[in-house]
From TrEMBL:
Species in which this protein is naturally found: Streptomyces nigrescens
Annotated protein name in UniProt: DNA sulfur modification protein DndB
Domain of life: Bacteria
InterPro entries: DGQHR-contain_dom, DNA_S_mod_DndB
Any Pfam family the entry gives: DndB
Length: 379
């Protein structure tokens, strides 16, 4: 992309601005719904300069974008910086409120699709999709200016007014669906704990063949006992704060979950086909995500003292006495709310407290506060 003064020679077309200054983008022209649009590449260093964020002081009905969620920016920026040789960002989509002119490179170009897009420098650029990417790019550039010469794809539409811009935002986000967390874990090769979860799902006798690796919810008739996302979160809680090499983390996690398996006879009954996975999930809560997460947190408190199997294995023996049946009234309000298993943060904490009580382990001040509030509610 170039920013330059227009040549003094007269043009057939009217100048884009009264001063003769303009943006010039190499671009490809396309048609959607009878309207022209243009695809180009823009250096990252110019993204914060050209694309201004919508005025957040305006009321929602006068804006064409949602308010920027600044809490998302550190993670997005860190993603770029930590993966500067391997990050991927999809295109920004923007409306241009100003004069645009497209000049084809050659008359031989069939359909006149490739050329140069000239936009008046006083035009206003409104991001319809990608405002958080734009803000994260600006944040990342402050820490690594070398990223400035890299590029991101930009799709330009002509601004047809506020109503059209608001409709574009609605349409671009209407069918956006986040992928299931399980398939995200399956495909994430940067996250060390995702790698551990995938290895457990394929190698451990407890999980091999019994983990749904694509969906994050199990159907009533599924033959699987666990979802990959539930195994991931449980293992993540187990290994949190432990400084272990990948192989060590995998070995430790496998030893832990196989020890848990010894305390939960229904798991092995499913593998031995004496109980169906559907029946187990219906009648017990220990294969649900909340149970794996709670067991991971309990294990983490033991592993922080020592990762040696001889240290923590025997301390888990009392789990054999826990009644995991959904009919157990102790779970109501802890793991079950209104007859349904709930995995809210509070329910996870209350389930952890219940297990720690059975294991003879104390509670942290925060966990005790949650427990006290729950007990007061029961009374």
């Amino acid at each position: 992309m170039e920013i330059e003064a227009a040549p003094p020679a007269p043009r057939v077309a009217a100048p884009c601005t009264s001063t003769g200054f303009e943006y010039r983008f190499p671009a490809i022209r396309g048609i959607q719904a009878g309207r022209e649009y243009y695809v180009t590449m823009c250096p990252l260093r110019l993204i914060p300069i050209i694309f201004r964020l919508d005025d957040e002081d305006l009321s929602p009905e006068l804006r064409a974008q949602r308010v920027l969620n600044k809490g998302r920016l550190p993670a997005l920026s860190k993603y770029i910086l930590d993966n500067s040789d391997d990050y991927v960002f999809s295109a920004l989509t923007a409306s241009v409120d100003g004069n645009m002119q497209f000049d084809t490179f050659s008359a031989d170009d069939i359909g006149f699709r490739t050329g140069q897009l000239r936009i008046a420098m006083d035009a206003r650029f409104l991001i319809n999709d990608g405002q958080h990417r734009r803000a994260a790019i600006e944040l990342a550039l402050r820490q690594n200016s070398d990223l400035g010469e890299e590029t991101i794809a930009v799709v330009f539409f002509h601004d047809a007014g506020l109503a059209r811009s608001q409709q574009m935002f609605a349409d671009l986000n209407r069918h956006a669906v986040r992928p299931a967390r399980s398939i995200g874990v399956l495909y994430d090769h940067r996250d060390a704990e995702a790698q551990v979860a995938r290895t457990l799902a394929s190698r451990s006798v407890v999980f091999n063949g019994y983990v749904e690796i694509e969906k994050s919810n199990l159907s009533a008739r599924s033959r699987k006992m666990f979802t990959l996302s539930a195994l991931y979160y449980g293992t993540q809680a187990l290994l949190q704060g432990l400084e272990l090499k990948p192989d060590e983390a995998t070995e430790l996690a496998q030893a832990y979950w196989e020890t848990i398996d010894e305390a939960l006879p229904e798991w092995s009954m499913v593998r031995e086909r004496r109980l169906s996975a559907a029946e187990m999930r219906r009648d017990f809560i220990h294969s649900h995500g909340i149970a794996l997460h709670a067991l991971g947190r309990v294990g983490n408190s033991l592993l922080r003292d020592s990762t040696a199997v001889s240290h923590w294995k025997n301390k888990l023996a009392p789990l054999k006495k826990v009644n995991w049946s959904r009919a157990n009234s102790d779970w109501e309000g802890r793991a079950i709310v209104g007859g349904r298993v709930s995995k809210s943060h509070q329910q996870v904490t209350l389930t952890v407290n219940y297990l720690r009580h059975h294991l003879g382990l104390g509670l942290s001040p925060e966990d005790q506060r949650v427990e006290d509030a729950y007990l007061r509610g029961e009374k």
